[in-house]
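The protein record quoted in full:
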Amino acid sequence: MTAVDQQQTEAIRQLVPFAAALGVEVVTSSPDEVRARVEWRPERCTTAGVLHGGVIMSLADTTGATCAFQNLPEGAAGTTTIESKTNFLRAVRDGYAEAVSRPLHAGRTVVVIETDVTDADGRPVAKILQTQAVLRAGREA
């Protein structure tokens, strides 16, 4: 298991308070790749001890948004998710779920991010394609 970057974890938790509530731990964060994980815990599960799909989607949205933010064009004020498509491939019943987000397109008006979520054994859990709107100062999405 790759070590958690405590400085990056604290930074994302400050920027996105929900990431702290979710227990997101950042492994790496750069414009080319954001990698973070969420530990499996019973209180994060649905029936039969399966990590809730909302936890997986929230993890992917957090890493995707962080990646998009790091790929914003000059003059942009921020980003917001306008579309997210998730395909679930396998249940997580122990260990953790790890999301890896990478930019597919970084344009003037949208940033498209692809996220792969795996379990602690590296097996595919979910595939997410996310579109983020580029926000300009004084404008709303």
Notes: The two ends are 38 Å apart (CA to CA). The CA atoms of residues 31 and 70 lie 5 Å apart.
